[in-house]
Design a protein that fits this description.
It is a single chain. With 186 residues, this protein is of the alpha+beta class. It is 32% helix and 30% strand. It has 5 helices and 7 strands, in the order βαααβββαβαββ. Strands 1-2-3-4-5-7-6 form a 7-stranded mixed sheet, sandwiched between helices. β6 and β7 form a beta hairpin. α1 packs across α3 (49-61).
Amino acid sequence: MTSPTDGRVADSVRLAWPAEAAPIAELQRRSWGTLPAAMSESMLSAISLADMTTVWHQVITRPPKAEFRVLVAVDGDSHLIGFATTLPSEDTDAEALRDGEVDQFVIDPPARQRGHGSRLLNACADTLRADGFERALCWVLTVDDAYRRFLTDAGWAPDGAHREIGTEDESVRIKQIRLHTDLRTT
């Protein structure tokens, strides 16, 4: 919706466009800087920005699954300030056709605390619900108190699942917990 005085569009969330692959890759690389240093360095050295852009372009234009979505949060000037992906959960204990997942969820730090994260999270829930899922899952780093608090404030709760992820050579390991929410009641 455009304001008659400034021509700006309201902050919003929508499906990503192929031309947004590069800004998504850039934002994802910046977000890796918040990981433990050894993991961040390993991830940044493992793939170039150009290769990440190619991967994002591919998943936007040819998703690996029919229910795989890339959502973007944009500000009133149409600048990309966040992104998320939704997909069927591939966890071994997930119920096929019932459990969807919010996999990637990134809001650019300067854009936080302005409602973008809430809009993006609600759009993820709406997208998963529209794709027929009844429950949403999300893995969170155990050290990411802010993201965990954001999700729990939005009605998500730990479901008891946990895991460790890390570098292929096992030199860096980080712990995650899984949160969930019932999409039938939100």
